Amino acid sequence: MEKTSYWIDDSPRPRDLPVAAELPEQVDVAIIGGGYTGLSAALALTKGGTQVAVLERETIGWGASSRNAGITGCGLKRGTPAVFQRYGPEMGRKFWQASLEALALVPEICQEEGIDCNWQQMGDLALAFKPSHFEALQAKAAWHKRNLDHHLEVIPPGDLESYIGSRAYYGGLYDAHGAGLHPARLVFGLARAAANHGAALCEEAGVYRIRRVPTGFELSSVRGVLQAKEVLVATNGYTDRLVPRLKPHIFPGGSYSIVTAPLTSGVQAGISPRGAVFWDSKWFLNYFRLTPDGRLLWGGRNNLSTSLDLDESVRLLQAGMLRAFPQLEGVPITHTWTGQLGLTFDLMPHLGRVDGLHYALGYGGHGLHTALYLGREAARLLSGEITGSIFMQIPHQTYFFYRDRPWFLPLAAVYYRVRDYLS
Fold first, then answer.
1. Taking the chain, what is the end-to-end CA distance rounded to the nearest angstrom?
2. How do 286-290 and 124-127 pair as beta strands?
């Protein structure tokens, strides 16, 4: 059993990825972070003629961009009814429309840049973990139809077998927009496209100081010093204290995954007859899907910690997997891994500027499409194509008790487990 991302083992970082041998001396925009956000911004900027350098502390795609489940769909981390309640219907509809545009952006970029990321839009199915949860799913479907004219198909418990080969759930909610893809292929495809358009991809170039200078900013990295007119911080769940005023806006949370050995075609068809991707209705949810080569990927929030032992993670995740699919008893687990989410207190993604630096972050586990969209939005702001974004128009919620270390996560984990138990 490998303790590395299955996606990277399946599609390793290309040896011929066009990375920069030397750090440029000067660029128009320096982007800190070589994941979906940074690479999407780099691609959009370079296509418009802007000189860009992407500075990645590790290697391109090292973080959550190659560790996620490759599941995406409509909406943001914060549920749309809650968005309407907090920000009002007008802004709520703008956020909803932005999420639809973000989802459409993934295949759009892949088609334009020739990226084969195994995109399959076969729908997603939210599963009721308890009978009471099914009532909430029904109410959600009615709300979406009434307020957005968006159709979500309610699947009664007796009809679930045509969508999923499990008796562990109490109904579901199907959305045809849901999709699955290969996240490592996507991030490396974005990197190659950005480099082909002129971006300098600088790996193992961790930035440890940013200083204002008359011409913009001076970035000191382990590979040297770079001058930039503008800077975009695109570090999401791996944000540190490089920009001290940014750290209180975001904190990391751990998400964990396992994947089985390849399954027979018959077992695959039994698990997901329609090729949908899945998640359940718990606060500490599980998400799962078949991979392009026929394995079952099972992931979730074991707890909110980023440091849970991976052997313990396997034990917990495999128990949940077998509860749903007892037919997988005895099937080997070949990979176990973890990645860090970027969480905000309001569960919303944000674009903004602090100390003259631009930032885009806070996807809460919904970053596959949202990160690409906010990366492009940041690029449009930096290039002057737009002067604002809906993701800049909401206050970025912070609390006095958090500045650096998220000491409160164990308490939050207990709170959400209690809510799951009582729901």
1. 35
2. unpaired
Residue with tokens 């045809």: 176
Q: Are 57 and 209 in contact (CB under 8 A)?
A: no
Phi, psi of 134 (to 5 degrees): -65, -35
Cα atoms in the 13 Å half-sphere on the side-chain side of 37:
32
Angle formed by the axes of helices 183-196 and 36-47, to 10°? Answer: 30
Rounded CA separation 157/171 (Å) = 4
Could you tell me if 75 and 196 are in contact, meaning their C-beta atoms sit under 8 angstroms apart? no
Q: Which pLDDT tens digits describe the chain residue by residue (423 residues)?
A: 999 999 999 999 999 999 999 999 999 999 999 999 999 999 999 999 999 999 999 999 999 999 999 999 999 999 999 999 999 999 999 999 999 999 999 999 999 999 999 999 999 999 999 999 999 999 999 999 999 999 999 999 999 999 999 999 999 999 999 999 999 999 999 999 999 999 999 999 999 999 999 999 999 999 999 999 999 999 999 999 999 999 999 999 999 999 999 999 999 999 999 999 999 999 999 999 999 999 999 999 878 889 999 999 999 999 999 999 999 999 999 999 999 999 999 999 999 999 999 999 999 999 999 999 999 999 999 999 999 999 999 999 999 999 999 999 999 999 999 999 898
Given a contact cutoff of 8 angstroms between Cβ atoms, the answer to whether 352 and 366 are in contact is no
Q: Using DSSP bridges, classify how beta strands 277-280 and 286-290 pair: parallel, antiparallel or unpaired.
A: antiparallel
Contact between residue 156 and residue 171 where contact means Cβ atoms under 8 Å apart: yes
Q: Side-chain half-sphere of 33: how many Cα atoms within 13 Å?
A: 26
Beta bridge partners of 125: 174, 278
Look at residue 257 and give its three-state secondary structure. Answer: strand
Bridging pattern class, strands 124-127 and 172-175? antiparallel
The count of other CB atoms within 10 Å of the CB of residue 306 is 19
**The two structure tokens encoding residue 78:** 């914060």
- Give CA–CA dist 16/67, Å, rounded: 21
Q: Please answer whether residues 238 and 252 qualify as being in contact, where contact means their C-beta atoms are separated by less than 8 angstroms.
A: yes
The rounded distance, in Å, linking the Cα atoms of 81 and 219 is 42
Question: Is residue 325 within 8 Å of 271, Cβ to Cβ?
Answer: yes
Give Cβ neighbours of residue 394 (< 8 Å, ≥ 6 apart).
87, 91, 346, 348, 350
